[in-house]
Amino acid sequence: MVNTEEQRLDLIKYCDYFIDLLGSFPQVDHTPEGRMKAQVIWLKERAENNDLTLPVDKNLLSTIRYIYTDGVLMFHASSPDKAYREIEVPMQRIIAIAKNGKLIYKPEYATFAVRYAEALISVLKGASRSLSDEETGLIDELADIKAGLSNGLLVPPLGNPKGLYPNYLAVDTYNPTISDLPKGKEYIKTISSIVFSGTRPDAWVDLETADHDTKNL
Questions:
Q1: What range does the domain containing 162 cover?
Q2: Residue 102 near residue 203 (C-beta atoms within 8 A)
Q3: Less Cβ crowding at N or C end of the chain, within 10 Å?
Q4: Phi, psi (rounded to 5 degrees) for 207
């Protein structure tokens, strides 16, 4: 796992988001808003002081982990249909950075994500065995993902692919059905992290390293 200036600044940004959102709530232990505010202020202060090595001990993030799982702050969204983007995603990103030391996917990395989609399409089309119906359907879904990333209409993270990409969900199990195909598991897991979790590979520290990592897929 890496520790970068980008992660530090991203963490501060998402902490600020919740500090502003919960601005009128005091830091108290008996409300979820108060506990959440205290958690992000603690994280922000340490990030600003360059006193935060990633990943942070998960026990020190127990408040945000519990609140994220419980969903108790979802009603703070501007409308119910925006709760995922306005509340869940920012919390996901704080956890991804602080607990897991991950790098956040951003639109400027679309070219490199598309290369992974193209590589997996090529693997599927060149498979030496017959593909299942779901694996065949995955090709079309990957083409849709590729187009969406390219034109900016697909904005990670999408969350669970259920209802969006049913074939993808059927193929990408704990041990993907295409694990027997050359680099099939590596490719689909990377795409899943980008598209559904909104995080990029650890090797993609910057655009140059992302280009180097994907140039020969």
A1: 107-214
A2: no
A3: N
A4: -65, -35
